[in-house]
Amino acid sequence: MRVEFGWFLDRAPWAFQSPGLNAVRVGREGLTKLLQTRLGTTRPELPDSYVTRVQQYLARLQAADTPDSWFHGSFEVDPWSTAQELLRARDELVANGWDGTLPDGKVSELMRCLAELERAGLPLDPALVDDIAALPDALDSPLPLGIEVIELQHPLGTLPEIWRRILAKLESRGVRIIEPENGFRQPPRITVLEAETEWEAAEHAARWLAAGGAERAAVSAGTAVVASQPTGVLDQHLAGHGLPRLGVGSKSAWRAQDQIIPLFLEVIWGPVNVQLLGEFLSLPVYPGPVRAKAARALQKALAEEPGTGGPAWQQALQEIAGEAELGPELAAELDGLFSTGLLLEDSNVSGAELAGKCEWLAGRLAALVPVNEPLATTADQLKTLLTLVSGLPRVSRRDLRRMAASVVAETSSPLAAAEAAPWLRLNHLNELMDDVEDVLWWGFQAGTISPGRRWDDGDRQALAGIGVELPSAESLAALTVAQTLAAARRCRNLLIVQVRQQDGERVDGNPLLEALVADQPGQTGEDGTPLSIADRVKARKVAPETLLEGDTWQLAGRQARLVPVPACETTVPPSSFDLGPRPDLAPEKLSFSQLSTLIGCALAWVLEKKARLRVAEADEVPTGNRMIGTFTHKVVEELHRDLQQAHRAVPVPEEIDAKIDLLLPRMASELLLPGQQSRLKHLRVIVQESVLKFFSTLSKAGVAIQAMEQDFEKPLVLDVDGTEVTVPVTGKADVVGIDTEGRRVVVDLKWSNRDKYRVAEVREGKAVQLALYQWALDDDGAAPEAPTAYYLLKQGTFASTHAAFGNPLEAAQPPAMLWQKTVAAASFTVTEVVNGRITAGPRLDAELAAAGEPYGEELAEAEGRHYGKPPCNFCNFTTLCGLKGDFS
Prior knowledge:
Oligomer: single chain
Number of domains: 6
Number of helices: 33
Radius of gyration: 36 Å
Structural class: alpha/beta
Distance between the termini: 59 Å
CATH class of the largest domain: Alpha Beta
Largest sheet: 6 strands, parallel
């Protein structure tokens, strides 16, 4: 047998030009396994051996740990990562022949620690490094090897010492070792295509491959494509030329299937993270871990109350229990998992307790595997993780995250699979072992290789004294460079593709470029002096804009004739759509939010209410100001209920504080998460002061609160093409009371960072929501104008025209006139909609402004309508209407 051996050949393809049955191409792992097979020293492959070995090494650390241990501080903070780091160091030593002996002389604490751990009697499964270390002794066996010759990819002297020993043992057994010849190959012609972006680079790289022709891409001549980074963009351009895709995908831990275990392990701990719970419930895996109907019910509850255990959550559980295909058993399981049975880190959760909590997910995955086969991998990963933790006396969330990251490895899922191609495909140029004509190196800047750990010089010298020679980081880097240069000489034409920015960020260069250029024949300037490396590199670079002369495109020895194509005109979505009469688009009912959207932008209203477009469920879980506003509103509502039962008007600070603590888990659990203590402390002070001021101000003004969240429904008569159309207006008034004069008082609670917008609404006479409340709650139309106000919870101030709330504002127009204009605006928009003219408000305003015509508020006021500001800042459809987006 003929063996081709190289440091980087474990991922290299089989022989490209001269394959044979009695020849193999292997790297360190491949040669080790080949020799083990011939010597009869193979061992069973252990599933998930890496995480098992980390767990075993962690057990050694636990047994050896004392307050005086060198690793104690790190181990106490992060046991799993400490075990990983020390195991990597141990494996690097063993891979170079170390047997656990502590060398004499002055050595580092790391070396002493590793020697002590190696003497521990606890088990540690063997790995590839142990197999390599055992080869020199195993080669003393008289068993025949069946290997005639080993051809080295690089000179023997550049290999680490243990491999020189292994090869010497093989040579003593009659195996011929052939080193590569140097100097007989010429360096290739190097061209560096430097594009601004990956898209620009992919266009020219694909064209270069297409310009090669079938005869040049054939195996006899040879073209190699090195893909050191994902080829998704390049594959699109290759397909456009009718060429096969390379199918190299990027590895990511954020694929939906790979998020099942990490997300589940986050949401079963308290306090609950509702954002992550929303993501877990809406994972795009079908069928998912949680049954679809149950997941939707819980997501709806989280959108109403961003926490668990409250009325909305209980209502969702009742819906699940009432569904015949779900039932009360599932409702109880989900409630226990995500609400009542949450694990608490302060209670010293054991591995057995955690494993019991995960039994539900394990059972669910097992049931889904027959209908979703890829989930078998996820089920196996969960089984491995539970095996690791089940015997631990205590499991912290930090350790669990580290273990999960080790077990749930990043996966690659290219947009299109690799297709059969006439090219030799490589991951790095140093894998090239066949002579080819041309090489395209895609993703050159990602083709760097880490040289490994940098060991202390004292440790290296002490280890050399016991026969263990650790290769220096410099020597391994030199080996990488040398082999890349040697591989480059196997081609005549090397096209390197690099970009200035990737995913919007600047990309660093690859130092291999200087080495490749330095290997070229020397160049001199016009004055005869040798050019610097920087100048020589610059001379090799070409920009995409310089590749075209007339209709001829030329790059790195290949050319193509380009045919002009008609320019693709940019088409911006229209500002309005004429659909013809559409009476079905008339509103069935309206709320304040629907009314404001309808008046501000008819297109947004139609898309939301008629086309029923909506954002993903996970995005509907409130956070930030929206969450805090809902929470504070609930605090006021429940305090009023308690005060009403006790016949009191103003709470004491202790009552407010107790109510905050009671409602946090079910209305704002985000504030209970680690790292939120300072934010919660600050918010607690604001809420206490603001809520107390709210009740105190109303009490001093003689306003008695009668109801909160009072439902109302009133018919609104609209003039649609001269016909009266009645639409019910429904909603809830936040706070409804009565003052000393018997007038109905309405207060709307708001939470926002600034008060100027609400104050401006009231001052300018544009507070439509307050005008709507006055109209909706006025039963017969004969009641005097009811006092209304916004109460700005964060600032603790009222915005109102009525003196009872303090500092009254003067409105530019009375509420009755504002409501009249609002009804006119609604009538106008509904008329437009039912006649099939759907308008994007801000887009139409921009077109009218460009034409010098009246638009926006000016146009609306001229026609006696209220101008509703389009809700673009909070709209989910700004790309669909053309306000945002690139339409080129």
